[in-house]
Amino acid sequence: QVQLVESGGGLVQPGGSLRLSCAASGFTFRAYRMNWYRQAPGKERELVAAIFASGGSTSYADSVKGRFTISRDNAKNTVYLQMNSLKPDDTAMYYCHTAIFLDYWGQGTRVTVSS
Predict the structure, then answer these.
(1) What is the pLDDT of residues 101-113, one digit of tens each?
(2) Are 24 and 72 spatial neighbours (Cβ–Cβ below 8 Å)?
């Protein structure tokens, strides 16, 4: 079955960096678009970044452009989110997602940006 397991969240000061990882299993990873979403308290879940299967082209929310980088390692079945210049507004649960006829989500990893 499809499994997505996120890791790498934590507490970081404003301006700091974190790298999130999502280990995928149960499907042909290299064939599918992978996404990172986030959900802050009291807000709707939003798409942060996406990386497409073919060619690895990427897409970002305006709020993270120039600060976040999504990448994938098809040999390791893992997608990453490098987050730099973090702001308090980046505080949220971050979720890995893919869609294979159905939506699949990881359990999430918490990112807290605070001094």
Answers:
(1) 999 999 999 999 9
(2) no
